[in-house]
Amino acid sequence: MTVSDAPSVPVRTTAGTAATAEAGGRRAPRRTPGIWRASVARSSVELKGFFRNKQSLIFTLMFPVLMLLVFGSIFSGKVAGTDTDLKQVFMAGIIASGVMSTAFSGLAINIAIERDTGTVRRLAMTPMPKSAYFIGKLVRVVVTTVLETALLMAIAVTAFGLPLPSTVQRWTTLGWDLALGTVACALLAVAYSAIIPNSRSAAAIVTPVFMVTQFISGVFFPFNQLPSWMQTLASFFPLKWIAQGFRSVFLPDSFTVVEPAGSWELGRIALVLALWSLGGLVLTAMSFRWRGPRVN
Question: Where is the ABC transmembrane type-2 domain (predicted)?
């Protein structure tokens, strides 16, 4: 047998041997998808899941609409000391309540369900950047909140005569009040979800907070007609400031005579909502759990 007839034997180079040894000695790292691509994919999943879930769609979007239609048909007359229709004051408040419905109540219940079913834990074990999960939630909240606000405004304007913002400044106020209020409520929802033990109790733990906050924040009644201790308590929560911002958008400036400070306090509204957003971010970082509750 000549040299050319000898069976070929693969030759492993020193570099190949080192690479093989290294691969055998430690596990090759998983390739992590880019944050942009992962966030877009996660946002798509969040939006599809929301609009395909009829129960979530009805509770989150339609509940404020039903309240608007029912109470808007009941209220009548002028607010004492002003020429402003009580119905318009309620409309501004219920639009603010719609922000809390989508950004706080809906999101907190959704996260509790995903944690209870193990979805959150499974996502944490994938190569997906963890930040993509929160970006997906934020995109879902922004889209649904804008949709909710537009829907409530359309009904309030066409059915109950609520005037649209009359100046560029008022439209600008509507934009930043909506943005800051949405972010603040969403971050608080993520943090609040940590105290929900399971999906069965989610609505029972979230809904009372949502309802009580509405009553003390000037949604159903003019804020100046509430007891002073309620006004003080409401000032510690975002909804009071979101509602006050919307009143400055939809109501005449003459209505400030019955506002507690005698003015709209736009600077304070922006500051309080920005601080709540920052506080919600800190609380989320401290309390969010990727694993579900322990089963005894």
Answer: 55-291
